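Hallway conversation turned thread

IA: we were arguing at lunch whether anyone had actually written out IspG C-terminal domain-containing protein end to end. Turns out nobody had. So, for the record, here is the sequence (118 residues) and right after it the structure tokens. Reply here if something looks off.
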Amino acid sequence: MKSLRIRSRGINFIACPTCSRQEFDVIGTVNALEQRLEDIITPMDVSIIGCVVNGPGEALVSTLGVTGGNKKSGLYEDGVRKDRLDNNDMIDQLEARIRAKASQLDEARRIDVQQVEK
């Protein structure tokens, strides 16, 4: 339902099927993040792509995106490259970034009841 956009709750992870170009364990990273972030209901797309060949294209259309690189991977936010993450600590870094982005999106979508009542 999530991939068809019938239900828009939680994180929609977009991951590559992996190949010899991947610079980190894509499947392991996605599995770990899905478990750690199952409490987030904020709708967002997070792309986890293991190489710089296909990663930037996916990252352009994702809320947050990672493109695999040698020892460090590129982090994109709303299609713009923002930072590089150490591949050895990527899961912890990504979890923190995703939680921060979800909080930011929640705050932006929050309705100010006092404004509505006026």
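OS: looked through it. The chain has one domain: 13-108.
IA: good, adding that to the notes. The helical segments are 26-36, 55-60, 90-109, 113-117.
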